[in-house]
Input
Amino acid sequence: MTNDGSAEVLLSTRGLGKTYGTGEGLVRAVDDVDLEVVRGEVVAIMGPSGCGKSTLLHLLGGLDRPDAGELWLGGRRIDQLTERGLAQLRRDDVGFVFQAFHLMDELTAEENVELPALLAGMSPRAARRRARQLLDQVGLADRSDHLPSALSGGQRQRVAIARALANGPQLVLADEPTGNLDSAATLEVLRLLEGLHDAGLTLVVVTHDDRIAATADRMISMRDGAFVDEVRLVGGTKGTLAGLAGLGA
Amino acid sequence: MGRIRLIWRLAMKDLRHNPAEAVLLLVAIAAASTTLTVALALHGVTDAPYAATRSATAGPDVVASVQEPTPAAPAALTELRHAPGVVASGGPYEIAMPNLVVDGHSDPVMAEGRSPAPAEVDQPKVTAGTWVRPGGVVVERSLADLLDLKVGDRVGLDQLDGGGLGGGPGGGPLRAVGPSFEVVGIAVTAALQPSPLNTFAHPSGFPEAGLVWVTRAAARQLAAADLGGGPLGYTLNLKLGDPAAAPSFVAVHEHGPVDLIAWQTIADREGLVVSIEQAVLLTGSLLLGLLALASVALLVGGRMEQQTRRVGLLKAAGATPRLVTAVLLAEQLVLALAAAAVGLVVGWLLAPLLTNPGASLVGAPGAPALDLSTIAIVVGAAVVVAALATLVPAIRAARTSTVRALADAPRPPRRARWSIAVSSRLPVPLLLGLRIASRRRRRAVLSAASVAITVGALIAVLMFRQHAGSLDTSGGLGGLYRFSGPGDPLWERGMDVMLVFTVALVVLALINAVLVTWATVQDARHVTAVERALGASPEQATLAVVVAQLLSALPGAVAGVPLGIALYAVVGRHSSGAPSAVAMVAVVVLTVLAVAGLTALPARIGARQPVVEVLASEAA
Output
């Protein structure tokens, strides 16, 4: 699945593969996937549970290693990086948003958001400033000193999104970002993702929620580890998000 | 009955399901139980054999002696036979100081001249062979044991040339002159302080020597050969109307050339052989008990964490919180009882190695009997340790909501605002390590306490070795004995006890270090995975766990230094003295390095766990 070649390709894969098990138990979680994502593009990957979309996302972000194929990010081949190189990649170039949020329970929203910046060596003051700015951006400035347990599901996911943006990544990968949320919280997250889209962020979202996919520039369907279909949503969904999502304005 | 059977079955099933943890818990409690058993076995065992020997040998209440070979010496002793309070006496007997020559080696001995007829006071009890006869020598049993002498052996009794004085067994060269004697008997006496002291200092005040008995004629002959005059000295054994008054009798009559010693002093010296061991072991068992408590608390805490889902399943199936608590308690109590049994048996087998005061007394304790009180104390202590460590987490687990337990949600960590603020200014491994450490304060405190106890005990052992020469072990003996270092039997015994104690201590400390690390690694799995997803490298994650352990180990090790000094002061009854700075630094540094080393591997294993798997399992 490729673009028309006119835009700058940020992420690309060639023949990407990942298998589990051996012999008759062999499972091709990701099977010969070719993908190109241009800078500023939002790509939604859809498919039934177990089709390999989360595994693909983990491969794209350097959380897991492919068994076959090539993986390029920002013109740099990343599938052969060392563990330390992959850690650096996740720290500087990729932001993750998980379905289960994976926030630190003992840290406040602000402390959770500043953590990646601290890991990247930013000064405590700059990291704190950055966290506040991001929390303001996701609409949680007044919840910055709340622990995750004191936040709603939607608020937690917005904190997680802010955390993913802490080091200004080139690419944000979201794995079922609304999978654990109710309708109202889903709308909060959709609006936020739309804002990121508008800001030109490159986003790959794995979901089986049509409403999320409808916000993307491109929607790719996956089955049995392989891409089976691609739909380009020309013009995006800007301005009509809530309506498309069927959640009301 | 059915409920008890159900609790038993559930508890046993879980123990079989987690055998490694069960074994660790068993070892932890068994080590403490063993030390406690040995300590209790030592308690009071010293009085029994001495009392038995006194009774069997008509032991004297006061031993009087003169070392000066003056013509007036026998008269001075004879006067004592008629002193107020004396109801019977034996002697004065001639004392010569020859060398006992055996198999090419000679050792100074005290040869006491005795009649073949039994004495009214202090008639040594023959344990092998016969009593003295012309041409024969009877050897005191501890000396016979030391030199491996048996009835029928031939020995030389040579005049003293001074070379053997002050030396230990096997001191001087063999000389061809002097009469030869047959060992006709082996005997014990209550007029002799017990082995191993008796080969170094005789209570009668004679120079360091073992004891043999010969005929009075032979003793005079040996003494004459040595000095060319009368016997070297005399000893007199007195029986008082009131044996308890022996110390005051000694105080009144000790003057001039006559040295007196009361039976209580001899008994105390015998007790000294094991009193130090008792003090060390009782203190050691207390420390080991504390370490075991830490081990059990860590293990139980870890088990409870892992059993959250099981608790949920039990409750979902209708178990009441009380039943759940009972099952969790039963598991630990069964292990505690088994460990107490192991500790009692091992301690009972080990005790004779430390308690047997030698062969100088009849009724030497050998393997001390395990009386009911010892069994009750050891079992009770094990059960209390297990119950203390288990009760709170068991009740907490039982009170966890069923839904939450079924979801296997981890116990929320503590938020330490100060550590979060401070750590944000530190390099990444320290940042992450400090935060991991402060998530579980109870574990950090247990870890620090465990290290402090270990270091404290090691410092005390080092000080014991370092200050052995000046250690005042009197404790009521008036400073009669001081350790003289390697070669001194008391010192060697002290080292044996220290070794047993130190080995048990180090084993428990190692178990604790591994437990703490593993518990930390398991607890930090999710945090570490998230941190790695956010860009922390495996090296940083590994270092973070090591740092977390060191943050509790380092203050624990430092705190262990004053603890060790205090321990030494209490156990050694020695308030002065400090370990050398080098020793202190070495113990602290080596301990911290050991903790770091023990931590590194599990930390590395934990940090290498695939991020995706951990996150997926936590999210499930």
